[in-house]
Design goal:
- Helix content is 72%, strand content 2%.
- The protein is mainly α.
- The radius of gyration is 18 Å and the shape is flat.
Length: 192
């Protein structure tokens, strides 16, 4: 809460211990936008987190449906919606639900890209991953299920993991990280 509210007054996510340069900023700036729009209130922050939590349930449904069918998607979403940890994280002001939302979104778009052999969807998945990675660095571990899906769909005529596809996926993350850590957070990213 302190990091998000300091964006409104100082422009950066400061906390009592200083500038939170080691934490990617998107979650804090998203909350600051909600505070600017709806007013500075802890409940408005929790409302944002709850909205992302509901989005997570929808994305679990979408992913389950894409991979195994509508019934599985519905059961997966229902089970996920009642997991105590998800309910808890959807009712407190943390950035975890935002990170999970963007992670699930990039996996869903990635599955669509693999199924449709679409470079545009590879780029869209890369952008969603870049947003997840700009919210929380743990998003890197969300690559494991997508890589597993790529591996399992490697049969002849299927999606090919080419250098171009890898670049389309990775470039958005590199650009956003370079902008935050190299320009705004002034972390001598460029060596000076």
């Amino acid at each position: 809460y302190e990091a998000a509210t300091s964006i409104l007054t100082r422009g950066f996510p400061y906390v009592t211990t200083g500038l939170m340069i080691n934490q990617p900023p998107l979650g804090f700036y998203t909350a600051a936008l909600v505070f600017t729009t709806l007013g500075l209130s802890y409940l408005n922050g929790v409302g944002l987190v709850t909205a992302f939590g509901l989005g997570n349930i929808a994305l679990v449904y979408a992913l389950g449906t894409l991979l195994y069918g509508k019934k599985t998607g519905l059961v997966a979403a229902a089970l996920f919606g009642f997991v105590p940890w998800h309910v808890y994280l959807s009712r407190i002001f943390l950035i975890d639900n935002q990170y999970l939302f963007f992670s699930l979104l990039f996996i869903v778009i990635g599955v669509l890209a693999i199924r449709g052999k679409s470079e545009k969807l590879v780029l869209a998945s890369g952008v969603a991953f870049a947003l997840a990675f700009l919210t929380k660095l743990f998003a890197i571990f969300s690559l494991i299920p997508l890589l597993l899906i790529v591996y399992l769909n490697r049969k002849e005529g299927a999606f090919k993991l080419t250098k171009k596809n890898i670049l389309l996926f990775v470039i958005p993350s590199l650009v956003l990280q370079a902008i935050w850590f190299g320009v705004f957070a002034n972390q001598k990213f460029w060596g000076f």
